[in-house]
Structures are given as structure tokens and as C-alpha cells.
Design goal:
single chain; alpha+beta; Ribosomal Protein L30, Chain: A; 7 strands
Length: 143
Amino acid sequence: MSEQMIAAVLIRGIHDREYSVLDALKSLRLQRKHVCVLLTDTPSNRGQLQKVKDFVTWGTITDETRKLLVSKRGKPAQGPLTDSRKKIHARVLKMDGKTLLPYFNLQPPRGGFGRKGIKVGFSAGGALGDRKEAMNKLITRMI
């Protein structure tokens, strides 16, 4: 796979949040805690992740981690993918010849998120924000 993929995981709950934050989370398909989505590395996706940085952790993942995530936690999409007029398409993820749901349900990580918890940024020893390549390690602990 030539393009870089970003994995984003919702860490904190979304109850009683601003509408703009809820809209950004909905467009990123992050509706429940410990749900991971794979996004292409574009400035638009990076901007949305920056908007919800107080609730989400993200980072670039390798092909090995992506394949492990798809094989262990990927669920096949069932039912019709378009409506009867072929105008509305369902959101699906097509990888390795499979049609999957666009999100992956994960467990809480073994060993916890970080020493300072889920209210502090990753650079300060917590769990939130951009993890860069350390996202691979977190996902393997959550699978």
C-alpha cells in the first residue's frame, strides 16, 4: 500500500460536548469509545483530528499493523451497499479484496493508556493527541 494511513481511536466519551466537536467526530466515524478508524493522510483529515485532539489519539500505522487490524478485528459489511436507485452508497472500507465495516471495535489497552491518564496529551506522558509511529504499539495492545 503506497499511501500513508492514519489510525484514530476515540478515548474519551462524547457526552455533553460542543456541536462542532460532535460533528467532527461523526464525520470521522468515531461514535463510541475504543473504536478505531483508518483514514488517509490528507490535510482535511489532519485538521479534523486536530479539532478533536482532546478526545482522540491518532498516528500513522505500518502495513503490518493494518493487516493485523483487518485480520483480527475486521467485520464484513452485510446487506446492500447502495439504495435501489444506486444514488446513496454505504460507507465501507475495501481492503485486501474484502468489503469491511469502516471501523474496528477494540479492547482497552493492556497496561493502560499512559502514566498520566486520558486527560493529558501524549507528549506530556498521557494518551491524547498525535502519537506518530507509537500508534502501532497501542493498536497491538488493544487488539
